[in-house]
Amino acid sequence: MNALLQGADPIIQGFQNHSLTDARAAARMGALELRFADFTVDVNALQPSDPALAAINAPYAHTFIFEDSYLNALVSGMADDNVSNLPNTQSDQRAAIIEWRVQLEILGRKLGVALPIDLQQAGRGEIAPSVTGGS
């Protein structure tokens, strides 16, 4: 997922420095958004049989819907050469991802299971590709 979203960076850079036309940037970002939309469906289709995991997964899965909405708006904004009205979903996404990580850590402690080190990074850093250079 991170590799997919990092693919947005060159598109955004090309949009910003005009090495890509608005239409080309929008088309490339649109292709990325379509791939992300497939992941969104896959993540939201997960139905853990364990009720605790199901409860933990649902809010996390919803963050993919926020991100897909953002990417969709970014595509439209690039096509119109106006990215000033993109939805600001990062705070909601970050809070849900941090909650997910904390709940997994609590469950892991309860079960005596160490979680993978990469989960400790969940919710930190850039959440949505930024056209303004900030996160």
Question: What are the key terms here?
Answer:
single chain, 135 residues, mainly alpha, 5 helices, 0% strand, elongated
Report on this model:
The structure is a single chain. The mean pLDDT is 87. This protein has one domain. It has 5 helices and no strands. It is mostly helical and 135 residues long. It is elongated, with a radius of gyration of 17 Å.
Write a compact overview of the structure shown:
By secondary structure, this protein is mainly α. The chain contains 5 helices and no strands.
The total of beta strands comes to: 0
Q: Which whole number gives the mean pLDDT?
A: 87
Shape: elongated
Count of DSSP helices?
5
Number of domains: 1
Give me the Rg, rounded.
17 Å
Assign a percent range to the helix content. 55-70%
Percent in strands = under 5%
User: How far from one another are the termini?
Assistant: 17 Å
Largest sheet: none
